[in-house]
Amino acid sequence: MPEMPEVEGLRGFLETNLVGRTIATAQLAAFSALKTVEVPLSALQGLEVTSVTRHGKFIAVGVDGLWLAFHLARAGWLTWHDPVPATPVRPSKGPLALRVTAEGPPTSPDAENPGEGPVGFSLTEAGTQKHLAVFVVTDLVQVPGIARLGPDPLGEGFDREAFARVLAEHGRTQLKGLLKDQSVLAGIGNAYSDEILQAARLSPFKLAGTLSETDVTDLFTAIRTDLGAAIERARGAKPAQLKDGKRTHLRIHGRKGEPCPTCGTPIAEVSFADTFLDYCPGCQTGGKLLADRRMSKLLK
């Protein structure tokens, strides 16, 4: 799943390559992806792209008074086209959800193609479960997922004291769930929450209200450090490079059985119905293995 660093990388790429261009077409291939009906996709055609912003894991393309917002969900991705494929977009059950083309010169001199275009991007989603979401709105508060977002942990004004207040407000919530809850903190998902908790040496199941002052500081520092470093790595990367870049730099997520880079203990995993978490018993739980929820059910 794309998380804050990858989404920020995509945002920056789109900002460089789209702002200043005019939307030529916006074609839907998966009708289930479009979650709004008040403003049609066709309303974007002929309008100039004025901005590209990120809100948690949402990207919003500002188009002369309208917004094209989207969330890539667990299996979605963005592919950049230069040139745009000649194959027409047709409704299907395949991975393609949306294709947008744009023409005219971009504002940024750093654009991949500073010419007239056309260029564009496609939103695709692998698998049979389709959760990728597209919105065309006049105001971003009309997107439910954006309206409910908590503070951005890297946002201006979000300091250690603000983070401590968040933890106090959700004192009975386990840290893993708290970090992933978009209404509490915007942008962190399954992979980076594992990385952050390992860096802070905290159990994923520890309750937020039980943290010491040192724990709070360590967790806040880990959030800022891990996310900040990942965003720096993503900056300037092309969309095709961002996926592999994420996997390459993850220390423990997706590395069950490998030695922890900090202490050498084999990384352990807890499996759930449709997801998993990874942790280091040596760094985070005092050597204790956490119960695997899926295996526990099988053994009953």
Automatic annotation (TrEMBL):
Residues in FPG-type domain copies: 251-285
Keyword field: DNA damage, DNA repair, DNA-binding, Endonuclease, Glycosidase, Hydrolase, Lyase, Metal-binding, Multifunctional enzyme, Nuclease, Zinc, Zinc-finger
GO terms of molecular function: 8-oxo-7,8-dihydroguanine DNA N-glycosylase activity; damaged DNA binding; DNA-(apurinic or apyrimidinic site) endonuclease activity; lyase activity; zinc ion binding
BP terms from Gene Ontology: base-excision repair
Annotated PROSITE patterns: FPG_CAT, ZF_FPG_2
Keyword Lyase: yes
Domain of life, per lineage: Bacteria
Record carries keyword Translocase: no
Names of required cofactors: Zn(2+)
SMART domains in alphabetical order: Fapy_DNA_glyco, H2TH
Chemical reaction(s) catalysed: Hydrolysis of DNA containing ring-opened 7-methylguanine residues, releasing 2,6-diamino-4-hydroxy-5-(N-methyl)formamidopyrimidine
Region (Disordered): 100-119
InterPro entries in the cross-refs: FPG_cat, FPG_N, H2TH_FPG, Ribosomal_uS13-like_H2TH, Znf_DNA_glyclase/AP_lyase, Znf_FPG/IleRS
Family the entry assigns: Belongs to the FPG family.
Protein name: Endonuclease VIII
Organism the protein comes from: Propioniciclava flava
Organism taxonomic ancestry: Bacteria, Bacillati, Actinomycetota, Actinomycetes, Propionibacteriales
